[in-house]
Design goal:
Blueprint (H helix, E strand, L loop, with lengths): L2 H16 L7 H19 L3 H16 L4 H6 L3 E7 L4 E5 L2 E4 L7 H13 L11 E5 L5 E5 L9 E5 L8 H6 L5 H13 L3 E5 L5 H9 L8 E5 L12 E5 L13 H8 L6 E4 L6 H10 L7 E5 L3 H15 L4 H11 L2 E7 L5 E10 L7 E10 L10 E5 L7 H6 L11 E3 L2
Parallel strand pairs: 7-11, 7-12, 8-9, 8-10, 10-11
Antiparallel strand pairs: 1-2, 1-6, 2-3, 4-5, 5-6, 12-13, 13-14, 14-15, 14-16
Helix pairs in contact: 1-2, 1-3, 2-3, 9-10, 10-11, 11-12
Length: 419
Amino acid sequence: MKYAELIAAIRASLLEKLEYMDEVDDETLQGMIGDEVRAFNKENHIPIADRLLIGKQVFDAMRKLDILQEFLEDKSVTEIMINGPDSIFVEKRGHLHKVNQVFDSEETLRKVIGQIVSKCNRVVNDSSPIVDARLSDGSRVNVVLKPIALNGPILTIRRFPEKPFMMDDLINIGSITKEAADFLRELVVAGYNIIVSGGTGSGKTTFLNALSAYIPSDERIITIEDSAELQIQGIDNLVRLETKNANVEGTVPITIRDLIKTSLRMRPSRIIVGEVRGGEAMDMICSAMNCGHDGSMSTVHANSAQDTISRLETMILMAVSLPISSIHRQICSGVDIIVHLGRMRDKSRRVLEIVELIGGAEDGEEANVLFHFEEDDEATQKKVSGKLIRRGELINENKLKNAGLLTRFDNKGEGIMCS
């Protein structure tokens, strides 16, 4: 008998016995599983190591998240992608691998998905087939069901380290230089509004967490997210807000825009939005960053620092009908700094640019490049080698002056038109 069939048979036998019993705790269930495995071993002669593995898989299937549990317990797995019950990929150290394990049926996979979303008070079904949720460890979960997903239930889990990366960790792995990190620390302390941009998987949330560690501990911080995953450290006066989806019972959805608006009445020192991807960009930039909540931060999907400006313009147009020139001025007035990240060809994640936005200049707004990543002679087709090079001097120093943290560069940097 194949092990998959054996696990199914043991599970079926246990379910039949449990049907006539009161509620059974985990310890008792593990004892019953051991008895069943020993009984099946008499006929199948299973090696000891395999018996232990079978027992664990049966327990995971009955009390945890089935075969998914194995990958969640593997600290080297950073992403889990399930494309239907029989197609599973995991990411380890930046590389994707297809695994041999499969769910025994689509129904089993849907039950696992139901377990995950129910713990977050979310609902996913045929009438509401897309949902974002999270696991108890903070991992981000996205679910797409049929009829949207043609090849079965799709489950994607982005995992985060138990201990969030600090800026020193990012310096040690070469994602940023100490010079640039020290510069950003002063900007955060002084209350510059910062947007972290980058593509999917470039490390935006990780970097935003690291930046937040520089926020003075006596401030009141409000975080706003679709699914709570930020790990703000060292702030006692912290309020964490999370959106809520509509459901079949008629619950009114609570959007990021709703949460930004209500957060403005909660006396925040700073507002941190996990990600802006739509009309909430208008509330974040026009209502928060431009109205006295200095030091606010967020992330945006974009291909470059310049593209971030265009993306923000497009998102604000989703919310209001204003001349693009007015929107452009609001962005360059509200956003002080863009930190652009990239995922390189060798799967490393690096800060590629730190750019200052300048608003109100007589000759038009411009983006002042402060740091730029440049590859060196040791770079190859398979390995990236280089560092962030200082390119410019901060032009808007008012906030640094007010905070008593004025830092100047020797050379004035090259600017690119912010238009």
